[in-house]
Amino acid sequence: MSSLIIIPARMASTRLPGKPLADIAGAPMIVHVARRASESEAGDVAVATDSMEVAVAVQKAGFTAIMTRTDHQSGSDRIFEALGSLDPDGRFERIINLQGDLPTIAPEDIRAVAGPLSDPQVDIATLGVEIRDEAEKTNPNVVKIVGAPLDSDSSRLRALYFTRATAPWGDGPLYHHVGIYAYRRAALQRFVSLPPSVLETRERLEQLRALEAGMRIDAQIVASVPLGVDTPEDLERARQRLALKTDT
């Protein structure tokens, strides 16, 4: 199946305003994310943004940028609008929603996220990482996947729930959810047409909207959590990591 990677990017971040254009090792953060997507060879790459500044920076780096409305409530809504402009004829069957604040993500993890869609019963795919740090198990900012291992694939979970609580109870691994998604095109269209759900609103996790509507989400388990850039401290860590990569 052909894939399209769309990276939503907006300038109005409350904790780190203008973060898509934050300089990291001589390039804007959004360009680093587009490079990781291109290196993954998982599909064509485009950035969906509400900022002309971001679009210009992306295009200057040789990538496609699509202007979208400023009033979108989520990245999923933004990428769906961009999809209509990029692919009105429906050539792409899988859409990967890659967050624009993951400049150090491993390209192989971007490639891995679409793996569960090889199962025709799966509507949406995402990533998970086993939690090794005890403090993360009780941290509400670390979203956990409550999932059932598949007999046919020990590296994949069928997601039953996502929560900020410590779950599931009892002995056994806990899994950190990495918020990257691969959608079947029809699943993305259905998802953005649904109103916010009760559990989504309560947990502040939009993927629960899909589960409440009976859609199936599977999580591919990968080795490490990518660094998400939400604060000035995160930005400095990303600069240090990519400076080391550039030096080597």
Key traits:
26% strand; 2 domains; alpha/beta; single chain; 9 helices; two-stranded antiparallel sheet; 5-stranded mixed beta barrel; Spore Coat Polysaccharide Biosynthesis Protein SpsA, Chain A; 248 residues
Briefly say what this structure is.
The chain is of the alpha/beta class and about 250 residues long.
Description:
By secondary structure, this protein is α/β, with parallel strands linked by helices. The protein has two domains: 1-103, Spore Coat Polysaccharide Biosynthesis Protein SpsA, Chain A, CATH 3.90.550; 106-179 and 186-225, Spore Coat Polysaccharide Biosynthesis Protein SpsA, Chain A. 32% of the residues lie in helices and 26% in strands. The chain contains nine helices and eleven strands. It has helices at 29-40, 52-60, 75-86, 107-112, 134-137, 185-193, 198-203, 207-212, 232-247, and strands at 3-9, 23-24, 27-28, 44-49, 64-67, 94-97, 124-130, 144-150, 153-163, 175-184, 217-221. A five-stranded mixed β-barrel has the order 7-10-8-9-11. It has a two-stranded antiparallel ribbon with strand order 2-3. Strand 2 and strand 3 (27-28) form a beta hairpin. The protein is globular.
Our count of helices gives: 9
Give the domain tally: 2
CATH topology of the largest domain: Spore Coat Polysaccharide Biosynthesis Protein SpsA, Chain A
User: What is the beta-strand fraction?
Assistant: 25-35%
What percentage of residues falls in helices of 4 or more residues? 25-40%
Give the total of beta strands.
11
CATH class of the largest domain: Alpha Beta
| Largest beta-sheet characterization | 5 strands, mixed, barrel
Shape: globular
Write the CATH homologous superfamily of the largest domain: Spore Coat Polysaccharide Biosynthesis Protein SpsA, Chain A
